[in-house]
Fold this protein.
Amino acid sequence: MPSTVLILNGPNLNMLGTREPEIYGTETLADIEARCQRRARNLGLSVDFRQSNIEGELVGWIQDARQSAQGIIINAAAYTHTSVALLDALNACDMPIIEVHLSNIHQRESFRHKSYIARAADGMICGLGSLGYELALEAVAERLVKGK
Ligand code: DQA
């Protein structure tokens, strides 16, 4: 059985492709999912790719991952900068967790420089667009192999 990686996407990421393309590019979330599925197959991983605009739904999915997944990749979008609830849910997960952002949040408005969920993440990748998701899969795969 391949290990399952839950890839979570937060609010407004369903609008990728048309949402501020000068910041987020022109790829849709479906394009990003296709990239992740392809890379995961090559790494021998299985991917469960989801998006929600609702904080509580994301919390529920993170809780479920304790039973259903072996790693989490999360782009919490705006909740990155506000959500102690997501941080607490991630802290309860004993598995590799990688935080991803399409844009370089440190080059942007100061309110985006703070990530609440960073404390729960093994690492953060930002500013590399959708490549960041693929690199996060590589990181999860390596951590699962090394048992970290
Ligand atoms: C984002 C950065 C966040 O600040 C923003 O609220 C998003 C997307 C990114 O992927 O660059 O919605 O997480």
Residues 26 and 32 are 11 Å apart (CA to CA). The chain has a mean pLDDT of 97. The chain is about 40% helix and 20% strand.
